[in-house]
Design goal:
The complex is a heterodimer of chains A (161) and B (143). With 161 residues, chain A is of the alpha+beta class. In chain A, a hairpin with a 3-residue loop joins strand 2 (135-140) and strand 3 (144-149). The relative contact order of chain A is 0.04. Chain A is 52% helix and 13% strand. Among the domains of chain A are: 4-51, no CATH class; 121-153, no CATH class. Chain A has helices spanning 4-12, 18-27, 31-51, 60-80, 88-110, and strands at residues 122-128, 135-140, 144-149, 154-155. Chain A has a two-stranded antiparallel ribbon. In chain B, 20% of the residues lie in helices and 52% in strands. Chain B has a four-stranded antiparallel beta sheet with strand order 2-1-8-7, covered by helices on one side. Chain B is globular and about 50 Å long. Chain B is built from two helices and eight strands. Chain B has one domain (17-142). The mean pLDDT of chain B is 85. In chain B, a hairpin with a 2-residue loop joins strand 7 (124-131) and strand 8. Chain B has helices spanning 2-18, 45-55, and strands at residues 23-32, 59-69, 75-78, 84-94, 97-106, 109-119, 124-131, 134-142. The longest helix of chain B is centred in the first third of the chain and has 17 residues, at 2-18. By secondary structure, chain B is of the alpha+beta class. Classes of the chains: A alpha+beta (161), B alpha+beta (143). Strand 3 (144-149) of chain A pairs parallel with strand 7 (124-131) of chain B.
Chain lengths: 161, 143
Amino acid sequence: MKNFEERYTAWMDDALDRDERAAFERALPDPAAAAREREEWLRLRGLMRQALEPARMPHADFVNSRIREAIAREARPAARSAPRLFPLPRLAFAGGFLVVLACVLSAIILSGPAPEAPTVSEIVAAQVRDERNRAYAFEAPGRAAVLWIDDAGFIPANERL
Amino acid sequence: MERWLIPWLMVVLFAAGAHAEDRIWAALVLGTTENPPRPAPEELEPFVKGLRTVFGYNSFYLLAAKEKKIRKGTEEWVVPNKKVFLKLQCIDRSPGCYTVNLELYFKKELLVTSQVKFARDAPLYIRGPNWGKGRLIYILEVR
């Protein structure tokens, strides 16, 4: 059973059926004042509906598509930056790097300690063509070696090299 | 991805460096005695002290210089001219050492043959023929 306020609101909104409406109007203490109030409310409601009707947006499809694009654009980096512990390309790259590193290190280790490199150049042998000539080998300052040929020939000063 | 490139490059460069080839620098120098002594060219400065001690000259002129890759089996004519020729043939290579056969020709005749073990940055001086008032000297150095 509806209380008075509910029935009054339904009557104001013209939501009662004919029997309920007649019964409610009979029960009103001041039907004339209530009728005025109802007319005023209906008029006001009409005005409100008119005023609050949503305005149509110009080029609504275009604006809609731009908004969708912006949403998609912003969603992409978010998806990319989603934390992935070991993405496949990075794993493959790191694997290749480690294989090459292992090969290089293995080659270094297996080759063993490098033999002591000489620090001075050394003349192992020297032989002159002419038996009367002589060739000597000795060390010189600056870790140098000298190949000394006694008779190495003569070029006159006026001859060009 | 870029940050992975740096270690990659380091490994590749390291591997390449391990097999880098040395070069042999050869120069033909004229040593003379002059008063006052002439300053040596910049390229000869590291050798001047040794050259003075060994050959006794106080002025040195760089007549020609060349730098070439040295590899086992290669044969090179070093700074040749019309009168003097020096032929080098690398016959062996061990870490930091090249064994080279050399032949010095004077006026197209073989003057001397020699076998030299070159250490890196340790030069070889060869006393060449006299030229005018000075003497020709070969300098060979593996770098």
